[in-house]
Amino acid sequence: MGRFAPSPTGPLHDGSLLAALGSWLDARAHGGRWLVRIEDVDTPRCSPGADAEILRQLAGCGLVPDAPVWWQSRRQAAYQGALDAMLEQSLAYGCACSRSDIARARATAPLRSPGAVPAYPGTCRAGLRGAVARAWRLRLPDPPGSVVLWQDRRLGMQSEDVAARCGDFVLKRADGMWAYQLAVVVDDAAQGVTDVVRGEDLSTSSARQILLQRALGAPTPRYLHLPLVCDAAGRKLSKQAGAQPFAPGAQALLRVLPKLGVQCNAASVADVLASAVAQWRAHRARRLPWSGPGSSGVVA
Length: 300
Prior knowledge:
By secondary structure, this protein is α/β, with parallel strands linked by helices. It contains 9 helices and 10 strands. The strands form 4 sheets. It has a 3-stranded parallel sheet with strand order 1-2-3. Strands 4-5-8 form a 3-stranded antiparallel sheet. It has a two-stranded antiparallel ribbon with strand order 6-7. β6 and β7 form a beta hairpin. α6 packs across α7 (206-216) and α8 runs parallel beside α9. The radius of gyration is 20 Å and the shape is elongated. 36% of the residues are buried.
């Protein structure tokens, strides 16, 4: 079971299309199903009508989900249930720290390396001491339990010490919004997602999500992080940097397929997708000609 989970902050651009197409191809090549989930949990960042436009763009490229679309904004009770379960097991705790409190604590913390940001210092780990919780955090396992090893199907073996990188991270924010990490893990488990295929920029979330999966007793999916689409200056395409929406159709697919190691000369959307699935299936167990940053890897 694969999925594509865009945030509705605007229409999709070529970088988003590559992630959607890669996840769709991987699901189809494995004989699996493909889902779409609208990650609108951070409502202030969402643009009115963007979700409908995203679904229109996907449909115009033949990328139609195999089940009804989910919206995270309708899943508040599920996230609260997950947080409550972790609180009951002391796997999460309330945090009274303000941003200025955390900034002051970080200012005196030793840096792990030049330019690094100190991890959350665990100020509220032992209790609130009469203060009122503003946010809720995951209580990380003590080292070495905070060190996560996982296998990425393209990038190979990965390792991260989450305690050193960020410390106990937020599950529910002070403004009442659910954190991306919690919502993603809860929804992936609820939807039975077995393979997470997404852009390489999200690989840094994997270790935190794996620790959350363990805390919730949820299975860990396989991970495949795809190469990024960059502009002429080598910067990742993003809506914030003004990346332009793509016009749905075969030409949009043909433009991003080479980044996935797929070459195709078909004219129609249906023929392009059929050819791409066949090539993806053939390439699954051997090295793909990835282009761009982080080009080496094996898709299995």
